[in-house]
Specification:
The structure holds two protein chains of two kinds. Chain A contains nine helices and seven strands, in the order ββαβββββαααααααα. By secondary structure, chain A is α+β, with helices and mostly antiparallel strands. The longest helix of chain A is centred in the C-terminal third of the chain and has 18 residues. Among the domains of chain B are: 142 residues, Flavocytochrome C3, Chain A, domain 1 (Alpha-Beta Complex), CATH 3.90.700; 128 residues, Methane Monooxygenase Hydroxylase, Chain G, domain 1. Classes of the chains: A alpha+beta, B alpha/beta. Chain B: Pfam families: FAD_binding_2, Succ_DH_flav_C.
Chain lengths: 256, 665
């Protein structure tokens, strides 16, 4: 059940580029990444694409297929009609290195600014946690760092100017993960808003929609974080208590 | 002359999977300026594919578990070919390494009393695998990645630079280790993927943590990075590889659709009533029950089907024979023309469970998900197509068990790239703990080595010039072959002739074929890309360079497989189906010899170090008799065996009836 498919693949570097037309064989059961590999092996040996596990577990092969942020390895060709032209472009929010490969260093820089896990005085082997308590953060640790949520987020998609103040859904979720970690003693609520731009998020849930791991980023991480930030700032009892000097505010952990 | 960047470190770690990150963390904790060279982006290494868990005798679920039991299980799984010292260190230190991960933020599944939960797995006597659902590898790599970041944050606070003491070189590939005039390691040479620019890493100590060799085979569960880089780099630097014939093939990898060819189908599908059928619809495994297993396996479908509910009064279905038996049977069916359309056989659970489709989804959630999402196959309605897939290499760089030092001064190795720990066959769950235990030891060993040096080695210019010329060669050659074509043929050769079932005549043909491929690999050429200086993100060029490594490891595997005339663990010889106690004493060691511009793999036999008495005492005498020669047995026992041998026809303990299986996925 082979057929010749029409593909448009963006070719170029950080200077400029264009969509290039290819006609390429497609066999039953293949995914878009297979077709990109066939192009490499037969027509375009220098076509740049990033990939690793080919099983939806490493999050390397992020791109946009007909405008939708997707993993190339998890997009089956059977979802397109044989006469449909399939357009593959690099993710838009990050600068292109070449062809389908982008410079995702923004993400690694943001990761470094979030204060790491802090177990306080606990010694290795001493930690005791209940399953029900670890499950909240475990959901967020399913993240494969494909950065599709970062790519789709309108705060930085086409808004380069917001990047310094906004860490994106992936890393706001990381802050949430640490905040909900039963053994962590740091307090990142202040910096979530101040340094990492939690307030920019207006819960359109685009990140949740594109997550290949089906993590409920908005509902389970970002909204609870917003509530915690607000709770810290405006809890009337804490406010009154601190004014009267009988409640001491916790120590805010600064960004790293 | 091509422009070359130079950077200086105390320790350079090649590979950013579990072993590499743990080694780098240790070196940095020891105060060494450290670089991590990662072929992919940071956090994408193949470790993420590990599902089951990390074996560590913490005794959280069954208090009877301890390092001695774990050690015993590991030696049994490896059929006593293991470096017993590595197995001992691994069993003793795994719990600490797991607790340490937790202390760095890992969130394992819990027991009711709040400890780390542990699950059962093939070959492990007690529930022993710390796990996070079926994504334990991802948790391990993410935690190590975040620990690296935590250390970088400390350095940022102190030096104002995150990368002052620990830098990750993402998407950077090392193509040569560099040695000084005294034959000591003095650095590594590589290219940065994004730009194609060359980098010299000056360093007195290098840790190899590059993983496996699966991409030398056509059907594999391994990713593109697994091209045997570390194995080849060690060989080229004068190091040695141990027991490369031991390659773990899993009998049931997906063969269809092509996008997922080689990806594992867990063994529990068969444990949960899944059956294997050929193109005629026949449950063929009943035809493949070897004589030694006749008493333990059902001879009719009706009896086999009763076993799932009543295992005490029925024999198990032959689908649950040991892995090599199942793989051999699948091979035979395909060769006899009774395979599935895509060269495997059918594995099906359709109509096999009393609770119907709902029960299938409940009992096999990850397999249901895997086939649905990756293959658009609904396993409640359709059969899966499966066949053997290359999964893991037990063989690897020969190292000192305590320091992970290779046979080259300044070179260290840990994880899948190192050899010895798993013997002839690895138990499931022992890989992740291996990475942590020996990753740390390699980082420590490298740091101590650096501290012991009186002077830092310098990199000779000639070494850099040679490495540059080698890396540029595919561009210099004109009208050579396409690297993809040569790679495909190499993979086909290894799959067909050095695969799961081996025989002398095929291995000899493989060596001839590899000889011809060697000439073709030397001639592949690529065109520069249209932008920049032509080397930026050039996959064809990268493959052209990786081919050298895959060819070398293929030669090592084929030569060792031809030499070892017995069947044991991950090495099955059709012409020598028995396990031999004499061969157990023999390690096969590969090194390079001949013309340095085109060296060939040389093999030598090296006696296995006898196991320490206190470790021998952990086993029953009857068990030792199965594996060891009479001379190796403790004194009293040896007399007993010699008396028995008078009656038997020879002294070799051929025991194919070993059921302690295996990877358990």
């Amino acid at each position: 059940m082979s057929y010749e498919a029409k593909f448009k693949v963006w070719r170029g570097d950080d200077g400029d580029g264009e969509l290039t037309d290819y006609t390429v064989e497609v066999n039953e059961g293949e995914v878009v990444l297979d077709i990109i590999h066939r192009l490499q092996a037969t027509q375009a040996p220098d076509l740049a694409v990033r990939w690793n596990c080919k099983a939806g577990k490493c999050g390397s092969c992020s791109a946009e297929i007909n405008g939708m942020p997707r993993l190339l390895c998890m997009t089956r060709m059977s979802t397109f009609a044989p006469d449909e032209t399939v357009t593959v472009t690099p993710v838009r929010t990050f600068p292109v290195i070449r062809d389908l490969v982008t410079d995702v260093s923004y993400n690694y820089e943001k990761a470094r600014q979030i204060p790491s896990f802090d177990p306080g005085d606990a010694k290795p082997g001493e930690l005791r946690m209940q399953q029900v308590d670890v499950e909240r953060s475990q959901e967020f640790r399913k993240c494969i760092e494909c950065f599709l949520c970062q790519n789709v987020c309108h705060v930085i998609r086409d808004h380069e100017e917001n990047k310094p103040e906004f860490s994106g859904p992936r890393f706001l979720m990381r802050i949430g993960e640490l905040e909900m970690h039963p053994a962590d003693v740091a307090d990142r609520r202040e910096i979530a808003a101040k340094d990492h731009g939690l307030g920019f998020c207006n819960i359109t849930k685009c990140c949740t929609e594109v997550c290949p791991e089906h993590i409920k980023i908005t509902d389970n991480a970002l909204i609870p974080m917003k509530e915690r930030v607000v709770g810290r700032k405006y809890d009337p009892v804490v406010w009154l208590g601190s004014k009267l000097g009988i409640v001491k505010k916790g120590q805010d952990t600064p960004s790293a | 002359m091509t422009e070359i960047e130079r950077h200086s470190y105390d320790v350079v770690v090649i590979g950013a999977g579990g072993a590499g990150l743990r080694a780098a963390i240790e070196a940095r904790l020891q105060g060494k300026k450290t670089a991590i060279i990662s072929k992919s982006l940071f956090g994408k290494a193949h470790t993420v594919m590990a599902e089951g868990g990390a074996a560590a005798a913490m005794g959280n679920v069954n208090a009877n578990d301890n390092w001695k039991v774990h050690f015993r299980d590991t030696m049994r799984g490896g059929k006593f070919m293991n470096s017993w010292r590595m197995a001992e260190l691994h069993a003793k230190e795994s719990p600490e390494r797991i607790w340490e991960l937790e202390h760095w933020g890992a969130l394992f599944d819990r027991t009711k009393d709040g400890k780390i939960s542990q699950r059962n797995f093939g070959g492990h006597e007690y529930p022993r695998l710390a796990h996070v659902g079926d994504r334990t590898g991802l948790e391990l790599i993410r935690t190590a990645q975040q620990k690296v970041v935590a250390l970088q944050q400390e350095d940022h606070a102190k030096h104002g630079d995150y990368e002052a003491r620990l830098k990750v070189w993402a998407e950077t590939t090392v193509t040569r280790l560099l040695k000084d005039a005294d034959g000591k390691i003095c650095g590594a040479f590589g290219y940065v993927r994004e730009t194609g620019k060359f980098v010299v890493f000056e360093a007195p100590a290098v840790v190899l943590a590059t993983g496996g060799i699966g991409k030398a085979f056509k059907v594999t569960s391994n990713s593109w990075e697994y091209t045997g880089d570390g194995h080849a780099l060690a060989l080229l630097a004068g190091g040695t590889l141990l027991n490369m014939e031991f390659v773990q093939f899993h009998p049931t990898g997906m063969v269809w659709p092509p996008s997922v060819k080689g990806i594992l189908v867990t063994e529990s599908v068969r444990g949960d009533r899944g059956v294997l059928r050929n193109s005629e619809g026949k449950r063929f495994m009943f035809d493949y029950i070897p004589e030694v297993f006749k008493d333990q396996y059902a001879t009719s479908e009706a009896e086999g089907d009763r076993w799932y509910d009543d295992p005490d009064n029925n024999r198990r279905p032959p689908e649950l024979l040991p892995r090599d038996e199942v793989a051999r049977a699948i091979n035979s069916e395909v060769k006899a023309g009774r395979g599935s359309p895509h060269g495997g056989v059918f594995l099906t659970v359709v109509d096999r469970m009393p609770g119907g489709a709902a029960e299938i989804v409940r009992r096999l959630p990850s397999m249901y998900h895997q086939f649905k999402e990756l293959a658009d196959v609904d396993i409640t309605k359709e059969a899966m197509e499966v066949g053997p897939t290359c999964h893991y290499v037990m063989g690897g760089v020969e190292v000192d068990p305590d320091t992970a030092a290779a046979r080259v001064p300044g070179l260290f190795a840990a994880g899948e790239v190192s050899g010895g720990m798993h013997g002839s066959n690895r138990l499931g769950g022992n890989s992740l703990s291996d990475l942590l235990v020996f990753g740390r030891r390699a980082g420590l060993g490298a740091s101590q080595y650096v501290e012991g040096l009186t002077a830092r080695p310098t990199v000779p210019d000639a070494e850099i010039e040679a490495a540059t010329a080698e890396a540029m060669a595919p561009f210099e050659r004109k009208d050579g072959e396409n690297p993809y074509t040569v790679h495909a043929e190499l993979q086909q050769t290894m799959n067909d002739l050095v695969g799961i079932i081996r025989k002398e005549e095929e291995l000899e043909r493989a060596l001839v074929a590899l000889g011809r491929l060697r000439e073709r690999v030397a001639k592949v050429s690529v065109e520069p890309v249209a932008v920049g200086d032509g080397r930026g993100y050039h996959p064809g060029w990268h493959l052209a360079l990786d081919l050298r490594n895959m060819l070398l490891v293929s030669e090592a595997v084929a030569k060792a497989a031809l030499e070892r005339q017995e069947s044991r663990g991950g090495h099955t010889r059709d012409d020598y189906p028995q396990m031999s106690a004499e061969w157990r004493k023999v390690n096969l060691v590969c090194s390079l010899a001949g013309d340095p511009s085109s060296p060939h793999v040389e093999l030598k036999r090296q006696p296995m170090t006898p196991m320490r008495d206190d470790l021998l005492e952990l086993f029953d005498n009857d068990e030792l008799k199965k594996y060891l020669t009479a001379e190796e047995l403790p004194a009293g026992l040896a007399e007993e065996v010699k008396a028995e041998d008078g009656e038997a026809d020879d002294g070799k303990a051929g025991d194919a009836a070993d059921e302690s299986e295996e990877d358990g996925r």
